[in-house]
Each structure stands twice: as structure tokens, then as C-alpha cells.
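Minutes, project huddle
Topic: does the predicted pose make sense with arginine bound?
PN asked that the exact inputs be recorded in the minutes so nobody has to dig through chat later. Recorded below.
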Amino acid sequence: MAEGRHTLITTGSYEAEPDEVGRVLLLYSGGLDTSVMLKWIQDEYEAEVVALTVDLGQPGEDFEVVRGKAMNLGAVDCHVIDAREEFAHDYVLPAIKANALYGGGYPLFTALGRPLIAKLAVEKAHESGCDTIAHGCTGKGNDQVRIESTVLAMDPEMKIIAPVRGWQMGREEEIAYAREHGIPVKGGTESPPYSIDDNIWGRSSEGGPIEDLGEPPRDDVFNLVTDPREAPDEPEDVAVEFERGCPVAINGERLGLVELLERAGEIGARHGVGIVDHIEDRIVGLKVRDLYEVPAAELILTAHKELEKLVGTIHQNTFKPQLDAHWAYLVYAGLWYEPLLGDLNAFMDAVNEQVTGSVTVRLFKGSARPVARESPNALYDQALAGFGESGGLFSQQASPGFIELWSLQSRMAYGIRNRKR
Ligand code: ARG
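Predicted holo structure (C-alpha cells), as shared on screen:
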């Protein structure tokens, strides 16, 4: 290690000591932190750096530019992997089947992406002879937990460095370091002070003015979803069709999953749908505020939940949300490889065998409301449910007997608790 700009205190057995580091696989986004890191690792560890950038459908990213930047900063190689198909099918789809919302509002797009990114990092590290994986997460967030736990599950021998946790540079110092080392700083220092992460399933903003809980979000936060006040004055009805829990068509047009999620995002965003102002319990103990833009998730999850309700029994419908919440918790907490998640997935798949049909959602100035549904598996019979006399399967004369037995224990308990002494 050259002149010690940072104090290296290792507490995890998997954290690389400088003399163990020969070649580093860096998870590279092209942003300031990981660009500074690309240079810094070469200097501090005297190691070679292979960069890896993963395309999960971040809107508006030019991956050739990112690649070029990495090469200019001295990477021996830079790989860009288009992982959108794998992300959609193996990560977002299970989340749809589990109606996944952490804390009731966060559809987990970042949490779903990290284990995939970490898995690809381990694969690329092996391919390119790297002994260490580096990432740009801070020591305060969930992402470090997700990436490191996945890396270590896949390769217990892999070493990890997370320079941001230890280098004790603030943003100003990082910018100074960047200037000093010829690292281009995007948009000067004037860019909005938010920490952004996005992919095909949503976008988050954290930090800066968002940290003031007493203040409503500023307009400059939102970048994906139209301000509901400016959304069209006419509602739009969107039919989402599912086969065994997987969305397969929008408004009658069959689409591959990646395209379908993109389309759902566009339509939702146009109508101001999917803005979430969320207070969140991070797994490392902090409570933070996130501003989410999740138009695709809002449309697809609304439709999926509605269809599931239509084909599920009362018992499935009261039980599954508890497992859904636990699924979201495990994924949020970075335990993608935990066996319990596999067990829960088996349950989700079993329930979703019946989730075939179509739900029409009405989008209007920020709201998404189911207005029509149809399914060959609906546990619904219009003749039985109607107010008219139905006979046959349902006998109204049977109801008093049912009520007498159904309420027996509860009535007895009520009587005991209210008896006059
Ligand atoms: N709060 C969300 C989560 O923990 C979003 C995190 C976004 N990550 C980021 N590096 N800005 O999953």
C-alpha cells in the first residue's frame, strides 16, 4: 500500500488485507465513487482492476460511454453484461408472484438487483483471475449486506474491499481527488445532491434535502414519473394479462417480460403513477427516508394482487400476505440464497398456478385502481353472488345454522366476560 490515505481496520474475515490483493474485480457504475475507486485501488493496493458494469435496464445509461471511461482510468478490462432478461425472469418475476413490497411500499428493485450483480461479479472474477471484489457501497446501507453476503455464499474464498467504508473522503475530497487524477466529474458539482439507483423495476432517490422529514419532496427529485398534477385529464384503462402469475400481455398485445415491464413503466409514468414517499427500516438499524418512482411495479402488482384474490380461497387470501411480507423482508435483508426463500418460492409458485386471467387497471393522475377482471379460475359465480334467489349450490335457509355454530365460542366468551357478578 502506498502512502496510507485511509486507515484499514478489518473486522470481517473476508476483508482483503493489502498484500492479499493481486487483481480486483470492481463493480463499476461510471459514477464519481466508483471512478475514484478505480484509480484509488490501483494506487493504494498496487493492483490491477477489471471493471464490470451490469445493465439491469437503468434508463438512459450509455454503457459504451461507461466502458470507455473505465478503460481511460486504467482498467485492464471492462465488461458490460446485459442482464435484463435474467433480472426480469429470475428476480422480478418471483417478486411479482410474492406481491413484494417491503414496509408496505418499496417494491425492492435495488434489493432484487444486488444478488444478481454479486453473482455476475463472482463469475467474472473467476473468469478473469481476480482474487478480490470491490464495490462502491457505504457502510451505512443495505447494499453492502446484499452484495457481500451473496459473494461469500457463492465463493467463500473470495476477498472483498469496500473502499467507501474506510477511505474517509467526503464528497468534496472525492471531487478534489478526481480533479487531481484527471477523472471526469459529471456536471461539475452542481448536480442534485441525491443518491440515485435505478433499474427496470424502479428508481430511488435518497439523501440531501430528502433527509429532512418535515419537508415534502422537492420537484427536482422526480425524473421518471410525471407530476400527477400534469398527468392527462382523461383516465386510461390498461388491461394486464397473466398466465400462471406471469404478466404476458398489455392491452391485448403479447410482450416478452422485459418489454412488458418497460411498457408498464411508460404507461404508469405518463399518468403520474408509482410515487412513494417511504420511511424505511434498514437492515443495519438505521431508519431512513426514500423517494421511489415505481410506475411499472404499481401497475403490475396492483393487477397481480387483484387477480390472485379472485382465484384464491379465503384461506389462501388471508394467509399468503403474511408470507409475501416475509419474502420481501428476506430479500430486503440480502438473504437471496437463504433456503427459506426457496421454500417460500415453492409456495408462491404453487399459488400462482391458478393466477391466469386479466385485470384492467384505471390510471388517473397518480392513482391505479382495478376496474375490471376476468379469469377462467375465478372462484366467483355471478348467479350465486347476486342478490336474487339462487337455489342450487347456495341455500339461504342454511345460513342461520351456520351462524349459530360459527359464532358459538365467541358468543360464549362474550357472555362470560360480561356476566354480572
Ligand atoms: N432503500 C433502498 C434499498 O435499501 C434503495 C437503496 C438505493 N441504493 C443506493 N445505493 N442508492 O434497497
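Observations noted during the meeting:
- The CA atoms of residues 265 and 346 lie 28 Å apart.
- The two ends are 82 Å apart (CA to CA).
No decisions taken; revisit at the next huddle.
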